[in-house]
Amino acid sequence: MSPGATEVSRSVFDLHMTIFWICVVIGVVVFGVMFWSMLIHRRASGQQPAHFHESTTVEILWTIVPLVILVVMAIPATKTLIDIYDTSESELDIQITGYQWKWHYKYLGQDVEFFSNLATPSAQIHNKTAKDEHYLLEVDQPLVIPVGTKVRFLVTAADVIHSWWVPALAVKKDAIPGFVNESWTRIDTPGIYRGQCTELCGKDHGFMPVVVEVKSKEDFSKWLAERKQAALAEKELTSKVWTLDELVARGEKAYQTNCASCHQPTGEGLPPMFPPLKGSKIATGPAAGHIGIVVNGKAGTAMAAFGKQLSEVDIAAIITYERNAWGNKVGDMVTPKDIVAFKKAQE
Amino acid sequence: MSAVIDHGHTDHAHGPAKGLMRWVLTTNHKDIGTMYLWFSFAMFLLGGSMAMVIRAELFQPGLQIVQPEFFNQMTTMHGLIMVFGAVMPAFVGLANWMIPLMIGAPDMALPRMNNFSFWLLPAAFGMLVSTLFSEGGGPNFGWTFYAPLSTTYAPESVTFFIFAVHLMGISSIMGAINVVATILNLRAPGMTLMKMPLFVWTWLITAFLLIAVMPVLAGCVTMMLMDIHFGTSFFSAAGGGDPVLFQHVFWFFGHPEVYIMILPAFGAVSSIIPAFARKPLFGYTSMVYATASIAFLSFIVWAHHMFTVGIPLTGELFFMYATMLIAVPTGVKVFNWVSTMWQGSMTFEAPMLFAVAFVILFTIGGFSGLMLAIAPADFQYHDTYFVVAHFHYVLVPGAIFGIFASAYYWLPKWTGHMYDETLAKLHFWMSFIGMNLAFFPMHFVGLAGMPRRIPDYNLQFADFNMVSSVGAFTFGATQFLFLFIVIKCIRGGKPAPAKPWDGAEGLEWTVPSPAPYHTFSTPPDVK
What are the TM regions of this chain, as residue ranges (chain B) (predicted)? Predict the structure, then answer.
């Protein structure tokens, strides 16, 4: 364990080292007595057994002494815990939502939100290319926060339980569907801090890392402004006139990020949990049914409602791609406007 | 009983029936104990082979041998089989064999129920293991099966899993009722409660724990069943339920469960250490009270498994303090064992080796347990390999070494032959080295930040994982040596006297070796 990058993580580290050394000392004493006894009090060295079998004084003593040690350990632990639970007076609030198998970050009141997906190429995972230093700990878009600022995290989940952990911040909070947990951090030094999901959340539990990039306050404001700009540009794409090729190209990328872990890059899925899309009735049938399942998901299965997760452009692109890939030859095109219209009709 | 003998069917009481039906229909505590022990060893090998698959995949970073879906099924089944199939039935087997012999009873109090509680197990595990071959695969949500991963997002085989857990629960509850009824009603005259061997005491307390918590587990899986098939929303927030409720219910069962798996080992070791130190157990009374305190505390600490789910500060503090308290009675036990050894006249045959390793390594597991109890530190340890190291240290050299120690200690009584001491010592050292090599490095990777239940990991964890895998393979392979030693001992060897260990105490050593099919038909006199 390392001392980490925050005041809280340092006091957790100190606690850890304190308990560790207390355990070492107790261990040395107890095992010391034991090994001494094992060396000396053996029949082979002609030892005659003693006959004592109780001593009230000693027994009371070794009940009281550990109790005192425990109290000594509990005091700093309680202080640290109270500190960790004080989420008041935050300067920036970020909502973290766990999805199978990615994180979603939303800067509350800032109109900025995005998904953070594993960026390690699958060729590295399947041992086809050399693994780099941050193997499995690299994402496409890290969570960006300013240095020296009290940031409050509101942690929740959309499907199963996940857990958001960054060791250097000593923040680990379960992301539970239907509940919002609070946590906070204030990081002293800019840098990149890495962690992982720590609650078993299905097959790709090991493939949803957390990356936090800490920027200086000025850089953070600049970054935030850029993101807002980008979000506006993204919205304009909805009204753009798309060609089939453009949509398929964009769709292939978005499919790899959002759909391929279940339905596989080949579209063959992992039946019966994750059905194939190649030649499937939905992906080759009427567009409305296809749009419906992508936008609304399918209750009682792992298929999420992507209508709330992805932009209209990406949904349209993915659907178009799915209808025209792996030998699916519907040849039609679903545009972002179709998605908007579909959502409107639902309301 | 006497009515049967009075009718003059003199050959009725002599020996076991011939052939397969002896085992199917038996109501004899020794036969049933034997079947429990063999069953548990078979499950130990099966669960162990799954651990080998896990360690083989984790031998190197990257995905080599299995895909993540199957990896999750392996971790889940490994946990379920080891907990419910290997450790618990092994202790029930020891209880069946030894409790009547230790308290001077002719058999268990409820022999027919005894037969039924055993035969439920092969049915339950047959069904559970068969799900691995079903479409969609077996349970893949971890042995703790947190909802909603185990309900809405589960493979279809989850229904079979629920049924299997129900059967195991029924079997355990019946076994526990039998133990309680036997101990409270069938003790020989003069065998007062405070004269009982500690193994009997710890089992009595364990049986009460089982009766208290197995119904809670049954309730938990029943709520899952309702959520999956009957439209309820106990564990789904979308329908007004609560996924955290699942964890509260599960761990209200789960924490006493971990003591169910260790208390009988405490008892066995408390017989074995005095026997080989040739000195009475130090602090018998405090041992009994410590066991009872641990059992009581086990009911009020469950949420320490849930420090990160967002329970309020006061709840967090309560569960932290209560958990730390467990260190006190556990410490008392360790100090008592060490004092028993102190100034004894010790020899180190296989049972003693396993018992001493038990005390040392279980204490190491206790230390990491104390560290995990500290809530703020737990935020860093929770769901990492540090936890995996912790519970394997209390379960492998705890429960399993306790079982090996018991097996070697009582094998002469069961078979009438001495086991091969040289091979048994080899078994001990290989297990000891393999086990430490497998689990000690897990502390380091956990503290360095490796989460548990992942099939692939960053390169920084690679070296320690490779060491762990080598240790695990060593430990796994060594267990075939144990099988060989036991078979060799059954088939022959130096005849064992009634009391093969000169320092051993207890009624079980007053009957011949091997123990006759029927013992203590007339109760012995206990002074």
Answer: 35-56, 76-97, 118-138, 158-186, 198-226, 258-276, 288-307, 319-338, 350-375, 387-411, 423-444, 464-487
Which one of A41, A126, A301 has the shortest CB-CB distance to B346? A41
Strands, sheet with A151-157, edge to edge from the N-terminal-most edge strand = A112-116, A102-107, A92-99, A151-157, A181-185
Out of A5-19, A27-41, A275-289, B385-399, which region has the weakest mean confidence (pLDDT)? A275-289
Q: Give yes or no on whether A92-231 and A240-346 have one common fold.
A: no
Judged against a pLDDT cut of 60, whether residue B6 lies above it is answered with no
* Count of domains observed in chain B: 1
**Total Cβ atoms within 10 A of residue B298:** 23
Domain that holds residue B385: 26-509
Nearest CA in chain B to A83: B376
Instruction: Please name the member of B155, B244, B363 whose beta carbon is closest to the beta carbon of A30.
Output: B363
| Contact yes or no for A224/A112 (Cβ under 8 A) | yes
Q: In angstroms, rounded to a whole number, what is the distance separating the alpha carbons of residues A175 and A181?
A: 7
Residues paired with residue A143 on neighbouring β-strands, in sequence order: A212
**Per residue in B36-57, pLDDT tens?**
999 999 999 999 999 999 999 9
Mean pLDDT calculated for residue range B346-373 = 96
The mean pLDDT value for A89-98 works out to 95
User: How far apart, in whole angstroms, are the C-alpha atoms of residue B96 and residue B98?
Assistant: 6
Sheet holding A143-146, edge to edge: A143-146, A209-215, A191-197, A162-166, A171-175
The pLDDT tens digits of the residues spanning A261-280 come to: 889 888 888 887 788 998 88
Average pLDDT for chain A:
91
- Residue A124 CA to residue A121 CA, distance in Å, equals 6
Residue A111: pLDDT band with limits 50, 70, 90? confident
A47 SS3 class: coil
**Window from A42-56, B151-165, B417-431 with minimum mean pLDDT:** A42-56
Q: Please tell me the predicted confidence (pLDDT) of residue A163.
A: 97
How many CB atoms are located within 10 Å of the residue B136 CB? 17
Which residue bears the tokens 């009391």? B499
Interchain contact, A41 vs B152, CB within 8 Å: no
Q: How confident is the model at residue B13 (pLDDT cuts 50, 70, 90)?
A: low
Distance, CA of A263 to CA of A240 (rounded, Å): 29
What does the alpha-carbon distance between residue A85 and residue A71 come to, in Å, rounded to a whole number? 21
CA-nearest residue to A65 within chain B is: B328
Classify strands A151-157 and A92-99 as parallel, antiparallel or unpaired: parallel
- What is the rounded distance in angstroms from the CA atom of residue B125 to the CA atom of residue A101? 32
Q: What is the pTM of this model?
A: 0.91
pLDDT digits (tens, 9 = 90+) for B444-456: 999 999 999 999 9
Q: CB-based burial of residue A223 (10 Å sphere; 0-12 exposed, 13-18 middle, 19+ buried)? A: middle
Cβ proximity of A244 and A333 under 8 Å: yes
Beta-carbon contacts of A138 under 8 Å, excluding residues fewer than 6 positions away, are: A118, A119, A120, A132, A209, A211
| CATH number of the structural domain spanning residue B412 | 1.20.210.10
* Domain residue ranges in chain A: 7-85, 92-231, 240-346
Q: Which of B330, B363, B469, B513 is catalytic?
A: B330
B505 carries an active-site annotation: no
- Alpha-helical regions (H) of A216-270: 217-237, 244-258, 260-263
Cβ–Cβ < 8 Å for A249, A258: no
Are A19 and B371 inside 8 Å of each other by CB?
yes
Torsion angle defined by CA atoms of residues B104, B108, B111 and B116, in that order, rounded to the nearest 10 degrees: -150
Q: Say yes or no: domain A92-231 is CATH 2.60.40.1120.
A: no
Which candidate, A238, A210, A79, places its Cα nearest to that of A153?
Answer: A210
Distance from CA of A208 to the nearest CA of B (A): 11
What would the CATH number be for the domain defined by A240-346?
Answer: 1.10.760.10
pLDDT at B7 > cutoff 50: no
Residue B3 located in a structural domain: no
